[in-house]
Amino acid sequence: QVQLVESGGGLVQTGGSLRLSCAASGRTFGSYGMAWFRQAPGKERGFVARITTSGGSTYYADSVKGRFAISRNNAKNTVYLQMNNLKPEDTAVYYCAARRSFTEDYIYWGRGTQVTVSS
User: What pLDDT does residue 26 have?
Assistant: First the structure.
């Protein structure tokens, strides 16, 4: 069982930056693949970025590639999402998620943190 708590959201102007954090409970954080998803008003939740257990491999949605960076610190049980050059279309609730293996779905989810980008 993993509990996830996101933080770091807020209001920022177009072109600004934010760094989201996701703190995980438990002693096995390093064995979980982690990801960020987001859900904008009136839209379905969509994939943003993922990172492998060691942090050695990352993957991004095309819409955020080159602007966002996912990372993790297994010693601190935390995964991060650095968001640069933010755009109004990045406005959404951002969720972190965990899965036990690459072949499984993400089954652990946080409650989300709101990111609002003003134009």
Answer: 80
15, two tokens: 């072109």
What are the structure tokens assigned to 2, written together?
Answer: 């993993």
Mean pLDDT of 70-82: 97
Q: How far apart are CA 54 and CA 19, in angstroms?
A: 20
Radius of gyration of the chain measured on its C-alpha atoms: 13
Tokens of 53: 């257990």
Residue 31, phi then psi, degrees to nearest 5: -95, 0
Residue type, 70: I
Distances, alpha carbon 82 to alpha carbons 1, 16, 36, 49, 104, in Å: 26, 11, 11, 11, 25
pLDDT of residue 102: 86
Determine the Cα–Cα distance for residues 104 and 91; give it in Å rounded to an integer: 28
Q: How far is CA 15 from CA 36, 41, 80, 99, 109, in A?
A: 20, 21, 19, 32, 28
Range 68-87 average pLDDT: 97
| Contact criterion met (CB below 8 Å) for 33 and 51 | yes
